Amino acid sequence: SGSAGVDLATAVNTILKTQNVHLIDSTLQGPLGRGLSALLLGRSSLSHHRIFVIPGVIDADATAVIKIIVYTLTPPVFIPANSKIAQLVPFKASVPNAEPLTRGAEGFGSTGPPDVMLAIDIKQEKPEESVIVQHPNGQSSTMTMLIDTGADVTIIP
């Protein structure tokens, strides 16, 4: 008694060979029962083992195998099957004016179209794009410009 969460174990052996995000099947499948949703969190001691769990929400109507999203900054890392690397903190959802949706077995925000974000590796190469700039007077010119991922203003010579 007193524990806020229930431990969640991995279903398979996994080797994190890169710093990329990995999805690991857990030993639990939805729905959680009693109309409960849950926060999926990493166990508090996990970061000492160089493994990080990306938090998520498990909806009450999810029916798929619950997946644990993990990454490491120092590969390779081996995670044996039945390792309790995450925990579920259950809660009763009370969202006002929520639309009735069934998530089913899709998981990961399957109630709408996916959001796709631009991601460019700029370690070695600077990302450039050919753009056409049109002046209000109708004159236009084509330029090769650096894609700046953090600028609020672009200065055009």
TrEMBL record:
Gene3D superfamilies: 2.70.40.10. It comes from the Eukaryota. One of its GO terms (molecular function) is aspartic-type endopeptidase activity. GO terms for biological process: proteolysis. InterPro entries: Aspartic_peptidase_AS, dUTPase-like, dUTPase-like_sf, dUTPase_trimeric, HERV-K_Pro_peptidase_A2, Peptidase_A2_cat. Residues 143-157 form the Peptidase A2 domain. CDD domains: trimeric_dUTPase. Pfam families: dUTPase (PF00692). This is DUT nucleotidohydrolase. It comes from Onychorhynchus coronatus.
